[in-house]
Amino acid sequence: MIVRESNNQIDTLAFQLSKEGKLCCGDSFYIKATDEYYICALADGLGSGERANDSSSAISTLVENNHAEDVDVLIDLCNKELKDKRGATVSILKIFFKTKQFTYSSVGNIRFILCTPSGSYIYPLPLLGYLSGKPQKYRTHTYDYEEGSKFIIHTDGLVLPAIKSLLKKGESVDDLSKQLEEYTLTRNDDLTYIVGQLF
């Protein structure tokens, strides 16, 4: 599955494959670009198959219905949503075009890295664990970004040995996606990535 979400401030492309032999993907995502901001939520349900999808899709639906909320509010709502479900690792990214800033929060092993045209990299460290409805601490950070910055956010089903050079070389989201193809051919897990470029 490939989904594109773009406007004159951002171009993003999401790609998803289920684990080999599974019809149902345990990862879910939601992406939306408005005039003021872009929001991306990525969730990896524990395990695989339908019960994993039940947890992860609850996250994408919740963020879709509440995308105007702040990231710290959303991550807490996500945790509450997973009470009595299997649980999921969750990352939420919100980019504000006017202030050229983004806010990010993550619990679990979903990875995010942003590369700026000036050559610096931002990769906030996630909290270990997963969301399951139990009382939980979160870490939410806000960073500045430059026009022309590129980013990738992905679940652990995608293993990238040289993520920094890949982001630096990629000319566009289509180019980045093409370069990622070789890493999607063999997979032992559900796999989702979202690549983006800011203008």
From TrEMBL:
Domain of life the protein comes from: Bacteria
Start and end residues of each PPM-type phosphatase domain: 11-198
Any matching Pfam family: SpoIIE
Stored PANTHER family: PHOSPHOSERINE PHOSPHATASE RSBX (PTHR35801)
Protein's name according to its UniProt entry: SpoIIE family protein phosphatase
Species per Swiss-Prot/TrEMBL record: Metabacillus litoralis
